[in-house]
């Protein structure tokens, strides 16, 4: 889901998950689980998450391929491992936050991976957004070694990672959910149980594919209306009080000037990049192909975002699809 | 917008238009405008509207190609004309509610059309959903005869037509808006001024195109999630508290059983038919082509609904796209 | 069809129409029809066509909104009219070659249009590429005045217009076909009878929509293959000897360097412009919507070409979609 | 490429590959390679291929999960293995012809797979159509054991398999190509070298994606033309002599009655099934996503074929997309 770096006030809307479906809202300060937590992957999301774990009193061992990412955590009190295996050796619970399926396979099943040294009974929580089939593959390997692998991708973006208000969509054995929640509530606000391993990924992928479709649709409708002579704020207010409304039109409108404090009003800087959305749409496409599911609009949104990445929009917020549809300066 | 025949409780959500942008909420009983109102087109929408005009104390003359549609109104106190020209002869203000552009052209500019007999200064309000370019064409012809033509398509469906709570999106000369509103508030709750003639059509077309996109997208995401093993109610609740939410997922969910009282939970009966949505998407496509606007997802939604109309879904509610995507009984 | 200005050798492939289906190949020199021919619209296509009519010994009266276009023909021996009506006054047969539907409506049914002065029995041949419904509209108006209106759009481009080797796709009353052919064989090589009025436009629109689809498809397949490591010439030869082959892959390959003498090997200069293809796809879309025909790939090709026109490709040959799909310099 | 079971006369067109690009045409009778050949996967394609190897005098050991498939070959003189490992034990060269990537992984790298027992130096030729990334994965595993893995998917269908006239698109180390060719010319007519391992799959995937696009496009254009009133044979002849022509329109026209001896004229029986085309489009989609290639029409064709598989067309020839677009009996 959208990494709303500069849209703080909207974050609540993005991530509020009603407290049914076994979710859990944590509002009090936590004082350490007593457990030793390993954290692998200290990027924009993982770094703040590991810091929150430390700040909540946990004993944390970290690893990242970039040494500078580790030294920051070290300064804050974390121990350091030289590879995933070393982290696993010193931990009971391990959280991974990595860019893609390949990194996750390497971190767990690679030569110096977690599976080499983690103790039977270890809880392995992968918060990366990856292919659900890789989550299942890792879970099967973990099970052979008596470990528990859980997928728990997040929603809420960098701001929520820093604030410790992430939403986690959790897939794994239901009896392990309380243990996972006990740790994840140190870094998140809403922990939702989604079903067997891979279900967390599935839920995230479905939501983000729909987000992309709604956003492209909103951009098309707003662009069409403006070209037909409508004032964008007026059209936006009509849509938002009618059946065309969505999160994309109400909270994250792609037309510059319609809403303050959204990427569209800031030259599409910040927010959730087109390249990242393209990656998530690729995962949705893979899952749809594998499960024989027809996703005509999802596929086309995927292709449009892919075109945008090769036309200069890779690092712009994904709402820049509005700009992509418009007449450009160099057109004839 | 969706004709929510059996979704009464949701109608308010569909049609509430915040009272800025020169809209007007009528909450008190009205007692006749003193003006003579003509009403042409007494179908599922036009019939109840004409009845409301009568009940509010107006003098109403009606016409429809089906005599039985007229006799119902006659019993309720309406006068009858034998063609649009006869209606126009006896009226100061004329409202039309017709199926498509061709009917509107015929009713106004045809052999026995309104333009033949209407007095200079007459206010002609077309509430049909048609091509904005036809609205402009009619307005130009009206202007030559000293009449005022206004487009005012509606949102809210049959229930709102009966309840007199329709939303009108009005396009025409701004100085004529108060006059149009004075009549339309007898049949509607929210009257929104959108700009010059054709703007009402433009606003409606943009909203409905977006509605179609969001609905197909919701159907795809829900279908994908279910095939990946997620419970549809759980997935729906995750989407509705996250960035994928829209009117289509929250108020009109296309998956049977997720919401009560929606067409999806009633075998896709009632609601807003696939054939009508296809017609609106055709209007959006025409407007987009004429204005050189790219609408990739809108075009694809158009084509998918068109495919549905030839595969047996023409009369089903447009949320039946969920069923269209699923494995059917006769598939291999 | 493609205006292959610099692909002379391929022109034959593009326009050869086997001599059945009532087509007619003219190979001998013609010496005037004795009829007075009017020609309206002297652009890139119309200019050379009018010149050929003159050179074949006809008495020709011309009109164009640009005086300089007329003086060129005047120098070659043509008479000049100040508007379509003046041309019609002096002619028995009139040929129009105009940019779009609106121009055609104006030239025939406008204030100083052909219908004002043409004699009953006049043969009106429109070679513009326009909406078949406008052809039918003009034919109906002509019929009321006892004139015969025929649609006869062309294939072959500027080179064929100059060489007098155009293909004409003719729609109109079958008994009038010999008369139309007698004139058109002065400017074309293959004259194909397609059916009632509008059929010529229908045939052209269907072919060009398919051309666009095949071209975008070829560009996608070639681009995918190259990114997967295949040599483009090798892939091209495999496709061209297999089931993926088409005119677009064999004769007009969109990958620079695969074929000599095609726009792709000349920086996509010349050829058939993206803006013109977009116009034809708009006509196909209109006809499909009006006839309730599903054209999912045609619609998407339309939208992609529309996107290209706003991203700087309007004047490039339509095979530049290959470049549009590729990684651009300013992408990340 | 299309499995043209009942389209014998067209097979030549489908598979002729000009003899450059290191391809090789075998026209003389071959008398055994002296090598021991293993063959795994004896389905509609593999069965006849194995039989041809036997008939050309090779010593052949076979395996299939269905015993009856093996007994047929046993009767013809083949030895039998109880699993891939047993086949590999008795062979110098092994050919596999399996339904999908998973089967290939199992046959080579599974518990009783080829890699368990094949001798260093063995030539492993996989003729299945699978994901090129799996071909590369298998090649890497083979290399570790000193074996050579080559991908060589086929074109031409069941008829060509029986006739020994298949086309092979070969990917692997160039120096191994002569060895592969020496065996493959016993079962095929054209052996094309495409590049490093995976290149054969890439070429096949690109061609088949383009075939699907051209076919859907042809169906759309023909359907549109017919609905606009054109005779399908006439439209077909215009397209086939113009720029819209392709293998799909000329050799395999999807409209019933336009061509004899194609599936369209035989109730879409035989030919290349929609489910198989959907599988190949899924492979194209996976390769495109992995290589960041935009394939908008390819993706949409994929989704349309996927929709067809759930609407009753799974076993019909892929040209039945024409019927899918048309008005059906139960539509309103």
From TrEMBL, chains A, B, C, D:
PROSITE patterns: 3_HYDROXYISOBUT_DH. Its main location: mitochondrion. Its EC number is 1.1.1.31. The active site is at residue 204. The lineage of its organism: Eukaryota, Metazoa, Ecdysozoa, Arthropoda, Crustacea. This is 3-hydroxyisobutyrate dehydrogenase. Pfam families: NAD_binding_11, NAD_binding_2. Keywords: Branched-chain amino acid catabolism, Mitochondrion, NAD, Oxidoreductase, Transit peptide. It comes from Daphnia pulex. It is an enzyme of class 1 (oxidoreductase). It catalyses: 3-hydroxy-2-methylpropanoate + NAD(+) = 2-methyl-3-oxopropanoate + NADH + H(+). It is found in: Mitochondrion. Belongs to the HIBADH-related family. 3-hydroxyisobutyrate dehydrogenase subfamily. Coiled coil: none annotated.
């Amino acid at each position: 889901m959208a990494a709303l770096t500069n849209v703080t006030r909207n974050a609540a809307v993005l991530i509020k998950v009603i407290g049914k479906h076994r979710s859990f809202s944590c509002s009090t300060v936590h004082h350490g689980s007593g457990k030793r937590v390993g954290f692998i992957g200290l990027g924009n999301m993982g770094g703040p998450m590991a810091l929150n774990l430390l700040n909540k009193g946990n004993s944390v061992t970290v690893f990242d391929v970039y040494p500078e990412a580790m030294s920051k955590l070290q300064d804050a009190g974390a121990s350091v491992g030289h590879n995933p295996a070393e982290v696993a050796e010193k931990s009971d619970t391990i959280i991974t936050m990595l860019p893609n399926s390949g990194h996750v396979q390497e971190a767990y099943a690679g030569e110096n991976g977690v599976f080499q040294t983690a103790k039977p009974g270890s809880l392995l929580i992968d918060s990366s957004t990856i292919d659900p089939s890789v989550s299942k593959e890792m879970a099967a390997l973990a099970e052979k070694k008596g470990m528990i692998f859980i997928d728990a991708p997040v929603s809420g973006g960098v701001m929520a990672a820093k604030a410790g208000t992430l939403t986690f969509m959790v897939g794994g054995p239901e009896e392990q959910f309380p243990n996972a929640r006990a740790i994840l509530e140190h870094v998140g606000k809403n922990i939702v149980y989604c079903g067997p391993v891979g279900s967390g990924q599935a839920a995230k992928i479905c939501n983000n594919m729909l987000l992309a479709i709604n956003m492209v649709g909103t951009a098309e409708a707003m662009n069409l209306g403006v070209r037909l002579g409508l004032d964008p704020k007026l059209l936006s207010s009509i849509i938002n009080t009618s059946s065309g409304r969505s999160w994309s039109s109400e909270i994250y409108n792609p037309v510059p000037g319609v809403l303050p404090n959204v990427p569209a009003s800031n030259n599409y800087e910040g927010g959730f990049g087109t390249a990242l959305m393209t990656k998530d749409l690729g995962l949705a496409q893979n899952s749809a192909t594998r499960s024989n599911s027809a996703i005509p609009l999802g596929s086309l949104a995927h292709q449009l975002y892919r075109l945008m990445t090769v036309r200069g929009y890779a690092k712009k917020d994904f709402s820049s699809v509005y700009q992509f549809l418009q007449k450009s300066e160099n057109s004839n």
